[in-house]
Write a structure and sequence with these properties.
The protein is mainly alpha-helical. The protein is built from seven helices and four strands, in the order ααββββααααα. Helix 1 runs antiparallel to helix 2 and helix 6 runs antiparallel to helix 7.
């Protein structure tokens, strides 16, 4: 019990110390926040002071001009001097605040170091508190055991071994040192693992960067191939459309030409037929020839006969002159001539169509090649110009960056403005403009924030009032319902009580009537016996009976009075 009470006391002490440390840490954080605010104020004052110094320099330069301008410059300089004096006061105040902040930071650093030392000192006590708890599992040189109790006098732990079924006594310092050694080993192992992880992460990042570079190259190549494929598909489609258009135009032209020729031939045939019909109509009727005369052959038939005779004569002469017979030359028919002429015409037309198609395709390919060549020339020229401009502008950019860095450093040394450390190559004017823009935007956002805060506060007040009124209405409604329920219950109780009282009164009246009748009968009977009995003994008995009757009457009156009092009390309680 004493060890438990001591443990409770130590635990409460440790809790108080931890609470004090937390309070000190919170105070340190608050002081750091105040320091940050003071530093921001100091930076703003320094910036304002620099602007005032610049204005003062401009005023001094303007004073070297015309007299009137010099007078104005003097007035302006006086105003600037007053502003400078005010800024100097502000500077001194900011410097004093900065010194105070530095001193506070030094004090806080000392307090922080003390808190850290106290934390390290408490770590041993926390470990000791952890091992001193009953039932804590510990590892001893003899195996795993469980803490039975802690001996405060010599800091000894009584440990029950699980394997040996025995109790060993080991100092608490041994376990604390073992825990510290294990923490140190874990810290070293974690550091080595952290180094390995960092190296692995660096290697993975380099590999990922190389893979990303390769993937970017492949993506660029794929995009070029896709673009080339799209261009080739568009080119082939355009050429196909143009060739199809030329073929269709050629076919349409040929069809129109054939139709024109057919129409012309039909027109000529119709004209010949019409002419022949016209001649046949005006020709005189021929006389019939006598049967004795031989029928004359037509001119065409005579011509054909003469030609055949000449051919036979020539063949006979040739056969007689030459020993070997020459092959017989067959004369082409009109159908063959027409077919050959049509085939030749078709070949000529197809040749013209193919020539037109090839010419169109060749022109389109040449046009696409020319466009592609122009694109290549433009791309190569842009690349050459970009590389040339890059080579020319690198030195200029480096010089500009160096000038900006030197200017920023010079302005920083001449004033109290601390420029950007992340981007030191930013020009001074650009940095100042960006900073002013950021400050202006910050002020606008602060105004918007305050406006929204006021609106939200009003909205919260309205919502709180609405909730309060709703709560009041709800409570009033609940109270009304409760009172209605209570009134209904009281009405039911009152009705039940009235019924009960009426029933009791009726019973009481019936009993009183019966009692009166019984009393009357008893009186009549006593009077009868008193009248009949005239002895002293009977007289004495009648007196005793009279006394008893009087006693009973008094007792009955008391009983009725008690009952009426109880009934009135119940009525009062029921009406309350």
């Amino acid at each position: 019990v004493e060890s438990l009470s001591q443990l409770q006391v130590e635990r409460s002490t440790t809790t108080q110390v931890v609470a004090i440390v937390q309070v000190e840490q919170e105070r340190a954080r608050q002081l750091l926040t105040d320091r940050k605010v003071a530093i921001d104020t100091y930076n703003a004052s320094a910036k304002h002071l620099q602007e005032c110094l610049v204005e003062k320099t401009l005023a001094f330069r303007a004073r070297e001009g015309v007299e009137e301008e010099a007078k104005l410059a003097m007035l302006h300089a006086a105003a600037l001097e007053r502003t400078t004096a005010n800024m100097r006061l502000l500077w001194d105040a900011a410097h004093t605040d900065r010194q105070q902040v530095k001193e506070s930071i030094q004090t806080l650093k000392g307090q922080l170091e003390g808190a850290v030392d106290g934390r390290h000192a408490l770590s041993d006590r926390l470990l000791a508190l952890q091992y001193r708890r009953k039932g804590t599992k510990v590892h001893t040189p003899y195996g795993v055991g469980v803490v039975q109790y802690f001996r405060e006098s010599d800091n000894i732990l009584a440990i029950r071994l699980r394997t040996w079924k025995a109790t060993v006594y080991i100092s608490l310092v041994h376990f604390i040192q073992a825990a510290k050694a294990m923490q140190q080993r874990e810290l070293l192992a974690m550091r080595s693992v952290e180094v390995e992880c960092k190296a692995f992460v660096r290697v993975e990042r380099r590999r990922e960067a190389s893979e990303c570079h390769v993937m970017e190259t492949e993506e660029a190549l794929c995009r070029e191939i896709t673009l080339w494929a799209q261009q080739m598909a568009a080119k082939e489609g355009h050429i196909r459309v143009a060739v199809t258009k030329v073929e269709v135009q050629t076919q349409v032209r040929m069809a129109l030409r054939d139709a024109k020729r057919r129409f012309r031939n039909e027109a000529e045939a119709d004209a010949v037929r019409a002419h022949a019909a016209k001649i046949r109509l005006v020709r005189p009727k021929l006389k019939t020839m006598p049967k004795k005369l031989a029928p004359q052959r037509s001119t065409s038939l005579a011509k054909m006969t003469a030609a055949m005779a000449i051919t036979s004569t020539n063949n006979a002469t040739t056969n007689s002159a030459t020993p070997a017979a020459l092959p017989k030359v067959s004369k082409q028919s009109t159908l063959d001539k027409t077919r050959v002429a049509r085939a030749a015409l078709k070949r000529i037309l197809m040749a013209h169509a193919e020539a037109a198609v090839l010419t169109t395709e060749r022109d389109l390919v040449a046009e696409y090649d020319r466009v592609h060549h122009d694109q290549l020339v433009t791309t190569v020229g842009n690349g050459c110009v970009a590389s040339l401009l890059h080579e020319l502008l690198v030195d200029v950019a480096d010089e500009t960056i160096q000038e900006g860095v030197v200017g920023a450093k010079t302005m920083e040394l001449q004033s109290t403005i601390v420029h950007s450390r992340q981007h030191p190559h930013v020009q001074v004017n650009v940095h100042v403009a960006l900073r002013r823009q950021v400050v202006g935007r910050k002020m606008q956002l602060e105004v918007v924030k305050r406006t929204w805060a006021r609106q939200l506060e009003r909205l919260r007040c309205v919502q709180a009032e609405v909730r309060r009124r709703n709560d009041m209405e709800r409570r009033a409604e609940e109270e009304r319902k409760r009172l209605e329920a209570v009134c209904k219950e009281m009405a039911r109780e009152d009705l039940a009580c009235r019924r009960f009282y009426r029933e009791e009164k009726r019973v009481m009246m019936v009993e009183s009537r019966h009692m009166q009748l019984a009393e009357r009968e008893l009186q009549l009977m006593l009077e009868k016996y008193n009248t009949l009995d005239g002895d002293d003994k009977n007289k004495e008995g009648s007196k005793v009976a009279r006394r008893l009757q009087i006693k009973k009457g008094k007792r009955e009156k008391h009983r009725l009075a008690d009952e009426w009092a109880a009934i009135k009390l119940e009525d009062d309680l029921a009406m309350a």
